Amino acid sequence: KFLQKKFKTLDLQGKALNWLKKYPCCFDVYLEEDEYYCRLTKPMMALVEEEELVKEAQEPVLADRLAKLLMMSVGQRLNVVKLNELKRSFGFGDDYVVRIVPKYADVFRLVNYSGRKSSMEIELLSWKPELAVSAVEAAAAGNECGGSEASFSCSLPTTWTNPWERFMEFNASPYISPYREPGELVEGSKESEKRSVGLVHELLSLTLWKKLSMVKLSHFKKEFGLPEKLNGMLLKHPGIFYVSNKYQVHTVLLREGYDGSELVQKDPLVIVKDKFGELMQQGLYEYNRRRY
């Protein structure tokens, strides 16, 4: 009954009881004194514990990820309420504000300049030069062929002549780090576009699944100094980004992050989340088999 009351909050529909019964490998539903209860199964409990261990081990990585986001933002601070929209994409847990921010008090602090609860922000206290290296720059530095010039890679078939030509022309100008202050760049200029493309590339590189909802990304135009016509800019660079419209939800993906539909590199959190997905599928198969 309690779960049913919270069902809409969890973005779920229908009857909680029916939903839980679909996943017998994950949830154990039982009757006690004419009331239905549910608890996690042993395999599910083992995964929950595994996820907690991964979260603990990944905490320094998540702290660096948060620092990098703040380093790219205008004024080196981000609104907590807005950042919560993207927390799952970056691997931050529900408790990241109380779990990470106080533990790294020399790097972050919570500020509230207006006094309103919705105005609370996380502010960067110390700039970390070792973190101001983008994925593009890191790839160039680790290039065994000796090419040290930072540049984007194109993931389109070579038969796509026109997009390749446009990409080569765009890539010919010097790469501009997203950690560089945008102040001296003229809005609408090629240099400004180069930095914006680099910034979205870096944001996607920091996400678990190398993708972000276009709607949510658009909420951060001001915070990251992104152009007003963000969708148009991303569509101009099909060799770097892929904009999908699945289930009427626009999502921008980093092309180089995928080999077909498979992620090239899986974050430890993604690996454990995949295990949850596999257990759910197992349960769904079992549920359908029983019904049949």
Description:
This protein has 292 residues and is α+β, with helices and mostly antiparallel strands. It starts with a helix and ends with a helix. It is globular. It is 44% helix and 14% strand. Strand 7 and strand 8 (249-254) form a beta hairpin. Helix 3 (42-72) packs antiparallel against helix 13 (268-291). The chain has 13 helices and 10 strands. The strands form 4 sheets. The chain has a 3-stranded antiparallel beta sheet. Strands 6-8-7 form a 3-stranded antiparallel beta sheet. A two-stranded antiparallel ribbon has the order 1-2.
On the 0 to 100 scale, the average pLDDT is 89
Secondary structure tally, helices: 13
Question: Spans of 5+ residues with little confidence (pLDDT < 50)?
Answer: none
Oligomer kind = single chain
**What global shape is seen?**
globular
Query: What distance separates the N and C termini?
Result: 28 Å
What is the ordering of alpha helices and beta strands?
HHEEHEHHHEEHHHEHHHEEEEH
Instruction: Please estimate the helix content.
Output: 40-55%
Strand content: 5-15%
Main pleated-sheet profile: 3 strands, antiparallel
- Biggest sheet: strand arrangement: 3-5-4
Number of beta strands: 10
Structural class: alpha+beta
| Alpha carbon gyration radius | 22 Å
